[in-house]
Amino acid sequence: MTAPALLSPQHIAMVDRGVSVIVASRDAALRPSIMRGVGSTISADGTQVTVYLRRSQSRQLLQDIEAGGGVAVVFSEPPTHRTLQLKASTATLRPAGPADQPLLHKYLAAMQHELAQVGYGPAYAAAMLSAPLEDVVALQFTPQAAFDQTPGPRAGAPLTAAQP
């Protein structure tokens, strides 16, 4: 018997569209590490997520993930604050390469659109998300838990069986 899908089609579409992404982990003493992603993508079925980080800005976070600190990633729509959190106990890291460049460009364009809705021009998003490809690392994981983190009465509630 197959387990029910963790993410609804609406959640997958939100992540796939390209919204704000923040990645977090923790060290053995439970001290948090956190960094803004410069890109993200998700498989069509929602079982594989890739988040891109600037290695030079994410040293502690990457060290914590590599040491087994797990990963928590929030995806948030700037205009609405609709927010999804995904967690996984493990993740893999790899250098980004030329095949990732179109995904990074797609994400930048999406974030320029998202931020324009709250009054920020395209140059702001470009400055915030610019990263030379040789400084970008891809963090890949399979979500094991998902939570509604949208501010309001359901904030922190776990998603069950791909609820919208």
How would you state the average pLDDT, rounded?
A: 93
What count of helical segments does DSSP give?
Answer: 4
Number of strands: 10
What is the C-level CATH assignment? Answer: Mainly Beta
**Which regions have little confidence, pLDDT < 50, spanning 5+ residues?**
none
- CATH homologous superfamily (4th level) name: Electron Transport, Fmn-binding Protein, Chain A
Beta-sheet strand percentage?
25-35%
Main sheet record: 6 strands, antiparallel
How many structural domains does the protein architecture include?
Answer: 1
Q: Strand sequence of the main sheet, in spatial order?
A: 2-1-5-6-9-10
Spatial separation of the terminal alpha carbons:
22 Å
Shape: globular
CATH architecture: Roll
Rg: 15 Å
Structural class: alpha+beta
Helix content: 25-40%
How would you portray this structure in words?
By secondary structure, the chain is of the alpha+beta class. It has a single domain, classed as Pnp Oxidase, Chain A (Roll). Helices cover 25% and strands 30% of the residues. The chain contains 4 helices and 10 strands. The protein is globular, with a radius of gyration of 15 Å. The two termini are 22 Å apart. The relative contact order is 0.23.
